[in-house]
Each structure stands twice: as structure tokens, then as C-alpha cells.
Amino acid sequence: MLSEFPFYALALVTLFAAIAAMTLRNLVHCALCAAAAFTGVGALYLLLDAPFVGFAQLLVYVGAVAILIIFAVLLTCAAETGPGIAFSSSWLAGVCAVALVLAGLVLPILMSPSLDRLAPPVAGAPVKDIGNQLMTIYVLPLETIGLLLTAALIGAVVIAMQDKPDAQPASDVKPPPREIADKDLCLR
Amino acid sequence: MTTPLSHYLLLSALLFSVGFAGAVLRRHAVLVLIGIELMLNAANLNFIAFWRYGPHPEALTGLMFAIFSIAIAAAEVAVGLALVIAIYRHRKTSQVEQFQALKG
């Protein structure tokens, strides 16, 4: 029982952080709780003898994705969700879908006795083997991932780039209601 | 490693459901993206757990899939947040229910 304690502690922390990230009202708090949940999943990877994936998870999710999310929250300057309801108006259908998905995932796991097996005692994956396989068997997916990341980052910059005001035709340019939006949505 | 495989799978199922609930139920676009990221994390946890508990852990297949999945998730969140910022700049809102320009 004592050797299982790290798993249950990490599982509890991860689940509660995820639930907090999905229920809190302040978006910055949500992003920080999501970072905590990502950290918990990375620690579970370490527990599963996969240190390379665990540290990659910490670098990518906690280091990059969480910071990106916080930047997006601050750039859209709507950290508080406002006085209205934070949940969707069609929440009943959503709750039904979530209950169906949860039942469809949990019931087969609980009903299959073959999933109760323990791990084989083989030690995990050395980083040298991962590097060797990435450069031999998985070299084509690796190059494809590099191309995809380049295309995605260029695309993200192009999408988020500020439009030049003289690039649009003057007829259908409508000035945005900036004063109302700033007063309602920004914290400033 | 005395934890049975089903406990990891149960945790992953719960994490997926929490992420799915957030992606379906919340109104803010950034929170929908966080929910999708939680779902991807749950899938990755399944990959690693099945790799560790499988009969051939030396093959590294599940590990490689998780690494590539993390890279694709990073690309996805970059494009998704760029879309959120671009839509906010044009429409001055980031509530998902008001993104109705393509509604038929």
C-alpha cells in the first residue's frame, strides 16, 4: 500500500487541478490550475518509468502552452468572465454527453479483468534508445512533425497579425465599439 | 510498480471527462482550448500506461506516439490561441456562443 501512495497522491492532485481549471471563474486562475494538472500528468509519466516524456511534458505544456494560454487571456483582456453565467446555455445536452462519455469509458475498464495486471519488472526506456529510434525507424514522422510545427507557427503568426487599416476597402470598414468593449471586458 | 493498470486507465478516463465537460460546457474560447488540452493529456497518459504495462516495453512504440502527440498538441494550441486573438480583435468577444458568422 505504501508503494502505491505516490500514484494516488498525484492522481488526486491532477484531478482536482483539472476540475478547478474547468470550473473557476477567473481565467488566469484557470490557466494556472491547468498548468498544475499538466505538471501532475508529467509526474505520472516519471512514475511510469518514462522520464524523457515526463520532462518533455513539463517543457512543452508547463513551459510553453500554459504561458501561451496566459498571454492569450491577457491579450484578450477578459480575465473575469463577467457577471453573467460562465456555462453554456445548452448545458443540459452537454451534461448528458459528458455522462455518456464517462460511462462509456469507465464501465469497460471496470468490467475487464485483464486490465488488473501489474507492470512487468523491466526498467524503462533509456534516452539513448529513444534517440536511436527517432533517428532510424521514426525519422520520417520526426521530419513531418518538424514541418508541421514550422507551418503551424508561421500560420499562427499570420492569423494573429494585426491587419493594416488601409488594406481593407473603406466601404465595409465599421469602427468597432471600442469604448463599450473596453468598459465591459477589460479589467483596466 | 504495484499499481494495477486499470487505476491508470480510470484516472485517464476521469481526466478526459473533466476536459470534455469543460470543452462542451464553458463559454470562453480559451477554456474550451484548455479542455481540449486536458483530453489530449488523458490520451497520452493512456499511451504511456499501456506501453509500460504491455508485454514489450522495449519496443518504445507508445512512448514515441506520446512524444509526437505532445508536439502536435503544441502546434494545435498555438494556432488555436492565434484564432482566439484574431477573433477577439475583429468581434471584441471571446465567448464561443457569439461566434456565429458561419451559422447557416
Name its key features.
heterodimer; A: 188 residues; mainly alpha; Four Helix Bundle (Hemerythrin (Met), subunit A); 66% helix; globular; disordered C terminus; B: 104 residues; Helix Hairpins; 0% strand
Spell the H/E element sequence of chain B. HHH
The residue ranges of chain B in which pLDDT falls below 50 over 5 or more consecutive positions are none
Major sheet description of chain A: none
Biggest interface and its residues per chain?
A: A-B, 89 and 74 residues
Average predicted local confidence, pLDDT of chain B: 89
Radius of gyration of chain B: 17 Å
Annotated CATH topology of one domain in chain A: Four Helix Bundle (Hemerythrin (Met), subunit A)
Distance between the termini of chain A: 52 Å
Largest sheet of chain B: none
CATH topology of chain B: Helix Hairpins
Give the name of the CATH architecture of chain B: Orthogonal Bundle
| Tally of DSSP β-strands of chain B | 0
The domain tally of chain B reads 1
Q: Please state the structural category of chain A.
A: mainly alpha
Q: How many helices of chain A in DSSP terms?
A: 7
CATH superfamily placement of one domain in chain A: NADH-ubiquinone/plastoquinone oxidoreductase chain 6, subunit NuoJ
User: By helix and strand content of chain B, what is the structural category?
Assistant: mainly alpha
- Poorly predicted runs of 5 or more residues of chain A: 180-188
Global geometry of chain B = elongated
Overall body shape of chain A: globular
What percentage of amino acids of chain A are in beta strands?
Answer: under 5%
